[in-house]
Amino acid sequence: MYISSQFSEIFKIEKTITLFGQTGKMMRDAQRILKELRKAKKDNNDELWLETKEDNIRNWVAVIKAPEGTPYEGHYYKIDIVIPDGYPIDPPIAKFITPIFHPNVHFKRGDICLDILKTEWTPAWGIQTLCTAVQLLMTEPAPESPLNTLAGNLLRYGDKVGYKSMGAMFARKFAPTKNVLRENFLLSKE
């Protein structure tokens, strides 16, 4: 039932775009975003959940499952994604909403230091690729370019136990588990 309501939202958005008569590049950009949205809705699962915010095809929210073997394992993180007018040439803007103790994420603002969000973006990638890259960053932090200097310094100076302890503590404090998400209807029931 929830999935069918999500698809009806997509059709409403498509109709709105058609009514406003967007042409040329704007229409192609909107079609690309809608294609990604359809695929995301179809692929939503317990590992990655994507949807639009406030019925705006340029504002998305992702809920990603933290990879196993990380200090965040067993927890889920919400990421705000804004698709700029220049997309897919320009990369999306992504920020963690759920606080995370990670060297490449600014703790207060949620900014993410990730190459594909800056210089390495290519139009061949999409929002799902971005989310996969964020999950990989959670597995393989890059302490040499920290936005969170405390987390970066712990790793740079070899204190992996301290880093993992802090990461796990922040995960328990701020990031929900699967059961909490189910209670809020964000994940399908098994």
UniProtKB/TrEMBL annotation:
This protein's UniProt keywords: ATP-binding, Nucleotide-binding, Transferase, Ubl conjugation pathway
GO MF assignments: ATP binding; transferase activity
Residue ranges occupied by any UBC core domain in the UniProt entry: 28-176
One Pfam family from the record: UQ_con
Domain of life (superkingdom): Eukaryota
Signal peptide region: none
Gene3D superfamilies: Ubiquitin Conjugating Enzyme
Residues at the catalytic site: 113
PANTHER family for the chain: UBIQUITIN-CONJUGATING ENZYME E2
Family: Belongs to the ubiquitin-conjugating enzyme family.
Name of this chain's protein: Ubiquitin-conjugating enzyme family protein
The species this protein was found in: Tritrichomonas foetus
